[in-house]
Amino acid sequence: MTTATAPTAARPPLISLRNVAKHYLRGEQIVPVLHDVNLDIPEGDFIALMGPSGSGKSTLLNLIAGIDKPSAGTLCVGGVDIAALGERELADWRATNVGFVFQFYNLMPVLTAFGNVELPLLLTDLARNERRERVELALRLVGLAERMDHYPNELSGGQQQRVAIARAIIADPTLIVADEPTGDLDKKSAEDVLALLRQLNDDLGKTIVMVTHDPGAVRAARRVTHLEKGELLGTEVLR
Amino acid sequence: MTLALILRNLLRARLRTALTLLGLTIAVIAFGMLRTVVDAWYAGANMASANRLITRNAISLTFTLPIFYKDRIRAIDGVSAVAMSTWFGGIYREPRNFFPQFAVSVPEYFALFPEFLVPEEQMRAMLRDRRGALIGRQLSEQYGWKVGDTIPLKGTIYGGNWEFTVRGIYDGRDDTTITRQMYFHWEFLNETMRERFPRAADRTGVFVVGIADGQRAAEISQAIDSEFSNSIAETLSETEKAFQLGFVAQSETIVNAIRLVSFVVIVIILAVVANTMAMSARERTSEYATLKALGFSPGFVAALIVGESLALTLLGALFGIGLTFPVIDAFRGAVGTAFPVVRVTAETVLWQFAAMLIVGLLAALAPAVRSARIRIVDGLRHVA
Asked: Model-level pTM?
């Protein structure tokens, strides 16, 4: 059994994994990816998951984000056992509680920066004016207020990732999951994006779980947890 | 936003969308045109009145009936009028200038066909002239004939050269009425027959029988045929529609082949649109997965694909239907009088629209279901 204990144990964990396992079926063959993982992540934490390819870090992130389900164990986020939720309930839960930042930004190419950031708000009851105000605020926060009418192909990689971060925070989720957020960026853009994530964690108290290969990126996190062959090896406190 | 996403997605691969739209437009035009040709085949039957029966020789249409039958038919209960009509089959200059000519008992015949509108003055002139002819508007326009012109015909069934003077031009009550025919006095034909072929005189091709109550058509037809059973020329009476459909039946195989081809066109375009939608959806797999990750439902993703497919096919329907009318106008000009009525019916337009609606839905079915069902993690990994 592998366990990572939060140094901020005084705070109740926002995310709690107990004996979580995940395997995939390849034909009739069972391919184990995660074994018996126990992990607590308190609210307001910024944790980096590191490990070699195939270590299971992205799978772990997907489970925490509610876009995949564990094969065994319990996974509670904010007190909700998300592994027990149905597809529809899980989608609603994600819309309210999780912001996503992907390696390749995953913006809709046919929508402007404004349209992309507005997307999660379409699942809310907010009126058009309220949506506009919030989108403009989010884009200002990521420093792209002037580029809100630009399409993704008119923006640099760093700018696209900042639009993705604005989209991730627009619905004010508790949790932000970032899968290799700097993996496709040059050094300068990567630093900007990491600074932004750190700002979201420090100033807005967002809980961030980030998968990364980049040792430089890890420095933005408060803690780093290492995985190998589907097991948690341990956690370092960085700040 | 959903509509905006659908329309913007539609314009992403502009060349592919334009080519698919071109294919759709051509398919809609072809479908509409083939259906219009089928409709043209049935124009005579569609124009038929429920209050008219046709009584002909039971052996075949090529055998005539003695005219003394007329009074006996008139005396049958339910019969309100009887007119004589004989196919003339003359050639104007050369055989390719085909148009139907009938020798009819003019006053009775035109009273039975109120859909033929003849100015009173012209009808009076017609009745005064034994060699007079009434021609339809379409015929007069095709050959440039006007009142007073002479139409020379070479007889085929009734040999020799014949000349008729146009005394009137009739219009149709609406655009379903056939106006490419010529009518002249049966009496003129009969007098000539008496002189040239006495044995062929005093006979008519068919009797057109007017009945007051269309519901009694079967009963009155039977009564007429019973009247002449075991006579020198037994009769076969049927509704005008059944009589006209008998002609269509002779070329039913061709009509069915045209019908089949019209549906094959739709099946082909269905395959084209389905391929377009499958390609589009496959390319956007990771986008759909992203939407689902953000909390959008699988139904929303499916709606995007179905919406895009419907937008494409209904746009094709719009262009196709719009262009069907000028294409049919050109077709009408090209075929001349080969078809009596060539018009795009409201039913054809509805069929065109319905076909595109169905194509839009069916083409989107597989990619919509696949995209809605795909696991988010698999979709996010997908590379277009």
From this structure: 0.77
